[in-house]
Amino acid sequence: MSVDAAWARRWIELAAAEVATQRDYLVDLDRAIGDGDHGENMDRGFSAAVEALRLAEAGSVADVLKTVAKALMSTVGGAAGPLYGTAFLRASKAALSLSSSDGALDGAGVAAVIAGALDGIQARGKATTGEKTMVDAWSPALNAARAAAEADGDAAAVLEAAACAAEAGAQATEPLRATKGRASYLGERSIGHLDPGAVSTSLILRAAAVAASRGGEAQA
Ligand code: ADP
Ligand code: MG
Which residues belong to any copy of the DhaL domain (predicted)? Predict the structure, then answer.
């Protein structure tokens, strides 16, 4: 099974709903080691992305991801806005160069989209793994996605592997000391808390997997 533009739209709608539901949780996480705005930022950004998609033409996976990137960049603010904006922009570019003639992505295509997202985040934020940022969710997600794609996993299997790895990666940020972003100002005191951006990444990638498992019946 592959994923198409309808999947990408379902993904962003589910991500927006999940971010809205978890808004206060993300706020609490960011209050502990940041300034407490991450839940609000993400909720505003994903609501704007859903609204932008409602107004946009159907398009391809790449078109959907580009619309999302623009909406996030112009509404999220903080550190996360440019980071997620660049992630979705690079993901869109990857989707454009890899998709089949009907615009759909197979397992390897999905892994390439996740690689594009991580590339964008690292180009912007210069963080590597272990610095207690969203990279600690995206990077294991990419490794798991590549492994699943190499094992001939279809798009849904690759997304499921990525979501599970992102969740584990987010949980694994708890004992880390932040060395990038606002949380790094706390030094040792950042230890013992989950990174808000890693947690929001895990919510977003879980939404991508759910969107594939729910709509896959209708796709090739
Ligand atoms: P701000 O820190 O400006 O208030 P947010 O609260 O919206 O922005 O986002 C904070 C999240 O951004 C962090 O939890 C972390 O995951 C992510 N982040 C911050 N700096 C970087 C960076 N340099 N690279 C990757 N992610 C980062
Ligand atoms: Mg913040």
Answer: 6-210
State the average pLDDT over residues 123-144: 98
User: Beta-carbon neighbour count of residue 188 at 10 Å?
Assistant: 8
pLDDT at 76 over 50: yes
Q: Which residues line ligand 1 (CB under 6 A)?
A: 30, 34-35, 37-38, 41, 78-80, 83, 121, 125-127, 133-135, 180-182, 195-198
How far apart (Å, rounded) are the C-alpha atoms in residues 32 and 27? Answer: 9
DSSP 88: H
Confidence tier at 98 by pLDDT (50, 70, 90): confident
Task: Tell which wins on pLDDT, 83 or 219.
Answer: 83
Tokens representing 30?
Answer: 């960011």
Measured torsion, CA atoms of residues 117, 119, 120, 124, in degrees rounded to the nearest 10: 140
* Average pLDDT value for the chain: 95
